[in-house]
């Protein structure tokens, strides 16, 4: 199979490299000349474990290449994937489809022979119809099927998620389109990943519904965590106790500082907007967004309370800035409202992140960045763990305490045991546990 992947962001690059690894011939296209030149030199613009090696081996095997011009790869392709960005539109929270539509117009002009054009970007329900209309308008004789194939990979675990998916959703009613995408994903049938064929609009909605449901699960357990603290229960045991029920499932029940990232906040906002456009009110999803926003902002107060109620003139050490481990992504990271809140309360903030500090400096230029957790803790009146990087899971607690001015730790990811922290003489706060 010959595949053209339009857009070398997160989804495009991971999907392109994985398709090439299946044995397909893949060309990744991006308008950003600097990015393409860097990729040709073997430099990967994002941090994703294993991606550099995967790209390098497939480039070496001549199954993967990069270009800024989509004409030749689209003309030769059996399937063209649109994996360009769909950011939140400023002002109204709708997904901004400018990049998707301009990609569709350019693809239209370059099509040759039967081709399946597939939207992989997360796009509102009905976008596939518009992509098809644009292509047919621009190139009436094109032999084309437009399908939806949403992506469910997580940053930091993207390659594993791509190669071992729970399911693959392909949205098109066209038999030839189904056959081509069936062939593209055939290597995954070895992993017994169910290939689910649906209509195009259904596939588009599955993506949003999945992300909104996961965001709801997290928000639900976060509220149960707040209640656990008040009634003296342990939210981790509550999560395990309910998660062992197969109808509920154990995953995505980790209480924390609220969800962030490039997907959940953006996609839940977009889903609410899509529903409003169709005169449907998704009250649960709306509540999830509101609860999560308030939660993220409330975390600074939690730190202040743990440190005695007043942060003016005090120093707070922040461990972990990215929205989750194994990424350098700072988009909608809980650390941003947290640090901003701490600064507003008059605290001085020192921070460390294993990978994300360069990105973080763009969002949070006014704080001090430290080379490691111990340097970060030096002289601090409180230390907050915001992201559960593996590097923070086995800190030398005695050394940490010796560095700090006051032994106060707020663990927003519940990675330490209250009894261990007490044994080391820390005042310890976590999420939804009695400490
Ligand atoms: C998410 C989905 O998990 C993917 O399936 C989806 O493909 C992707 O969005 C997307 O739409 O592209 P991602 O944003 O990379 O993936 O990260 P997650 O691991 O889902 O974490 C999202 C946020 O939820 C993070 O801030 C994380 O800390 C938080 N979270 C997650 C919790 O607070 N508790 C949990 O139990 C799980």
UniProtKB/TrEMBL annotation:
Entry superkingdom:
Bacteria
A Pfam family annotated for this chain is: UDPG_MGDP_dh
> UDP-glucose/GDP-mannose dehydrogenase C-terminal domain: which residues?
317-418
Record field: catalytic activity: UDP-alpha-D-glucose + 2 NAD(+) + H2O = UDP-alpha-D-glucuronate + 2 NADH + 3 H(+)
Does Oxidoreductase count among this protein's keywords?
Answer: yes
Q: Name one GO molecular function term.
A: UDP-glucose 6-dehydrogenase activity
What EC numbers are recorded for this enzyme? Answer: 1.1.1.22
Query: Which chain positions lie within coiled-coil regions?
Result: none
Keywords associated with the record: NAD, Oxidoreductase
Task: Look up the record and name the pathway of this protein.
Answer: Nucleotide-sugar biosynthesis; UDP-alpha-D-glucuronate biosynthesis; UDP-alpha-D-glucuronate from UDP-alpha-D-glucose: step 1/1
Instruction: Please name the top-level EC class of this enzyme.
Output: oxidoreductase
Q: Do you know which InterPro entries this protein is assigned to?
A: 6-PGluconate_DH-like_C_sf, NAD(P)-bd_dom_sf, UDP-Glc/GDP-Man, UDP-Glc/GDP-Man_DH_C, UDP-Glc/GDP-Man_DH_C_sf, UDP-Glc/GDP-Man_DH_dimer, UDP-Glc/GDP-Man_DH_N, UDPglc_DH_bac
NCBIfam families in the record: NDP-sugDHase
What family is this? Answer: Belongs to the UDP-glucose/GDP-mannose dehydrogenase family.
Instruction: Tell me which PANTHER family the record gives.
Output: UDP-GLUCOSE 6-DEHYDROGENASE TUAD
This chain belongs to the protein called UDP-glucose 6-dehydrogenase
**Organism per entry:** Bradyrhizobium algeriense
Its organism's taxonomic lineage begins at: Bacteria, Pseudomonadati, Pseudomonadota, Alphaproteobacteria, Hyphomicrobiales
């Amino acid at each position: 199979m010959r595949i053209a992947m339009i857009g070398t962001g997160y989804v495009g690059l991971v999907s392109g490299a994985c398709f090439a690894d299946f044995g397909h011939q893949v060309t990744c296209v991006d308008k950003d000349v600097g990015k393409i030149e860097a990729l040709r030199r073997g430099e990967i613009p994002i941090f994703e474990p294993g991606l550099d090696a995967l790209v390098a081996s497939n480039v070496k095997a001549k199954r993967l290449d990069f270009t800024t011009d989509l004409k030749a790869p689209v003309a030769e392709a059996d399937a063209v994937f649109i994996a360009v960005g769909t950011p939140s539109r400023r002002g109204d929270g709708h997904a901004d489809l400018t990049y998707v539509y301009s990609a569709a117009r350019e693809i239209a002009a370059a099509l040759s022979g039967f081709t399946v054009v597939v939207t992989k970007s997360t796009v509102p329900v009905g976008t596939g119809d518009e992509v098809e209309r644009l292509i047919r308008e621009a190139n009436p004789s094109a032999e084309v099927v437009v399908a939806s194939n949403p992506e469910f990979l997580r940053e930091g675990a993207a390659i594993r998620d791509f190669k071992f998916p729970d399911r693959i959703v392909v949205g098109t009613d066209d038999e030839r389109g189904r056959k081509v995408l069936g062939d593209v994903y055939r290597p995954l049938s070895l992993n017994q990943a169910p290939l689910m064929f649906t209509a195009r609009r259904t596939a588009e909605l599955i993506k949003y519904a999945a992300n909104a449901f996961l965001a709801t699960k997290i928000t639900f357990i976060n509220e149960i965590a707040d209640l656990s603290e008040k009634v003296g229960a342990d939210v981790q045991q509550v999560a395990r106790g309910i998660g062992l029920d197969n109808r509920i499932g154990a995953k995505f029940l980790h209480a924390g500082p609220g969800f962030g990232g490039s997907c959940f906040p953006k996609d839940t906002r977009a889903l609410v907007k899509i529903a409003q456009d169709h005169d449907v009110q998704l009250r649960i999803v709306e509540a999830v967004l509101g609860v999560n926003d308030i939660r993220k902002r409330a975390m600074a107060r939690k730190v202040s309370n743990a440190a005695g109620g007043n942060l003016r003139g005090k120093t707070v050490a922040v461990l972990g800035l990215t929205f989750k481990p194994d990424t350098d992504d700072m988009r909608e990271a809980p650390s941003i409202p947290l640090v901003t809140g701490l600064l507003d309360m008059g605290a001085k903030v020192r921070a460390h992140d294993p990978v994300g500090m360069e990105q973080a400096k763009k969002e949070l230029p006014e704080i001090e960045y430290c080379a490691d957790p111990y340097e970060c803790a030096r002289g601090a009146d409180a230390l907050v763990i915001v992201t559960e990087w593996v590097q923070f899971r086995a800190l030398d607690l005695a050394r940490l305490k010796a560095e700090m001015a006051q032994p106060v730790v707020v663990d927003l990811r519940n990675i330490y045991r209250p009894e261990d922290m007490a044994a080391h003489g820390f005042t310890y706060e976590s999420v939804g546990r009695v400490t």
